[in-house]
Amino acid sequence: MRWTKFAFTVLVVAPLAGVLALAQPAPPAPQARFVVVLDAAHGGDDTGGRLANGQLEKSFTLAISVRLRSLLTARGIQVVTTRDSDVTVEPDKRAEISNHAAAHACLSLHATQSGSGVYLFASSLAPADPARFPAWKTAQAAWVTRSIKLAGVLNAALLNAGMSVTLSRTSVSAMDSMACPAVAVEIAPEQNAKHETIAGLDNQDYQARVAAALAAALLEWRTEARQP
Amino acid sequence: MIPRYQVYLFSFLLLASLAMGAALWHLRERAHQRLLVGQDSAPTSAPAVAPAEQAALLVANDTDGSILTQLHSLPLPADPGARARAVLGKLLDLYAAPNAAHPVPGGASSVVQVFLLPAPEIAGAAPAAGKPKSADSRTVVILPRESRSVIAGSPTQDAQQTGPLLAVVNLTGKFAAGHPSGIETEMLTVLSICGTLRANLPRVTQVRFLVDGQQRATLAGHVDLTRTYLTDDLLTAEEVHP
User: Tell me, what's the pLDDT at B45?
Assistant: First the structure.
């Protein structure tokens, strides 16, 4: 009679258990962590441009990166940085770090003494369909459309903070190899309508305002990314 | 006391050295004279003075990030390569002038040479320009269509010479080293060079850059110089200025 009990179990109890299991509400899937890559440009031997008062671009970008990382981490955003100190990081390595992080947004931080306000650059690669094995030098092509949208969100936040913004496209090798929505942010001194400098790059208040605006934009981007 | 035979020997060697020096000097002079005789330095043809023509230069401005067309009258050679070098030289002279809107030291001598080659088919080349649209954007036509016919390349019957061209611009290392660092300023230089080539040589559809004859990663630390820039997208560009 043992085989009869076994058959009863298989034919009746197991399907019933399956139906009961399906009837139970599924536990909510854990929400994917929102990841942002901050790429402080230059570093180590590569000093970047020379800014006012002898400041080097590599130092400025690192300072902004640290400031922005603090703001984002405090808001629950996971931040991956390409460098945390004055070290040389090759452009390919920067793209590797970004691509390993599977980031929702990648910001490449730069500074310049010429011009005014904040410049936002998306890659100038022509948009392309995602490929299973994208070419390294043009990996960004599949993300250009999203990168331009991200640039638009950053633009809105910076404008909201009262800053002058210029949107453009460019070709920077590290950014062109990134497989994520990527924007190069180049910060210049703040000038008024008469082209007089009202806040230099060494102005802590100006740095804080730029970082706060970028953080606000990334929060907005996270909200958009989570919408179905 | 120096032996007599050593004095004779020393005197002999000294005289021999002087004689050989004199013989060498004489041979050198003779060779120099022979060289001069073989060269005819008299001018055989009058120097060709190219007539002044109007060239469309796409001049960048750091203040507002714009690139606007300026027409300049300058002598332009008939050879397309020399013509390209002449217009780029004039453009870089404008940038090297005091109070330039896009200051870049170097001037005309920064362009070593411009090679014009048949343009290859390429995939994934970067458009030289093209800016994302925005509700606030204003359109700046940086290359008026009428200016494209101002200076055309020399017409030729050869089908190979009517196709699209790749311009390889060889810049000096001094120019790259002295160029201000920054994405915007470097991009403006690259765009204005590409646009100026396109405006004056409409067959130029692709532009590549060399520095001192070698490929260089970036112009001044930012903008990629290893890429081929397409000039087809240079007709219009949008920019945002709140």
Answer: 67
Domain boundaries defined on chain A: 56-226
Amino acid of residue B16: A
CB-CB neighbors (< 8 A) of A164 in chain B: 241-242
DSSP assignment of B212-241, as one string?
TTB--SBSSSSSBSSSPEESGGGS-EEE--
Average pLDDT, chain A: 88
Instruction: Report which of B74, B186, B128, B223 is spatially closest to residue A176, judged by C-alpha positions.
Output: B223
Inside any domain, residue B35: no
- The total of other beta-carbon atoms located within 10 Å of residue B37's CB is 8
Quick one: CATH architecture of A56-226?
3-Layer(aba) Sandwich (3.40)
Q: Which amino acid is at A196?
A: E
Choose among A41, A115, A125: nearest Cβ to B65: A115
Q: Is the pLDDT of residue B162 over 70?
A: yes
Q: Which residues of B touch A169 (CB under 8 A)?
A: 127, 129-132
Q: Decide the pairing of beta strands B52-61 and A190-191.
A: unpaired
Three-state DSSP state, B58: strand
For residues A222 and B126, the model is more confident at A222
Among left, alpha and beta (phi > 0; psi -120 to 50; other), residue A169 is beta
Q: Which of chain A's residues have a Cβ under 8 Å away from the Cβ of B129?
A: 124, 169
Tokens of A185: 């942010």
Write down the ipTM of this complex. Answer: 0.81
Query: Does B148 reside within a domain?
Result: yes
Q: How far apart are CA A49 and CA A36, in angstroms?
A: 25
Which residue is associated with the tokens 């009990």?
A5
Question: Which domain does B227 fall in, by range?
Answer: 53-239
Is residue B32 included in any domain, yes or no? no
Number of domains in chain B: 1
Strand B66-75 to strand B52-61: parallel, antiparallel, or no bridges (unpaired)? Answer: antiparallel
- Nearest CA to CA, how far is A107 from chain B (Å)? 14
CA distance A72 to chain B (A): 25
Phi-psi region of B130 (alpha: psi -120 to 50; beta: other; left: phi over 0): left
Q: How far is A102 from chain B (nearest CA, A)?
A: 23
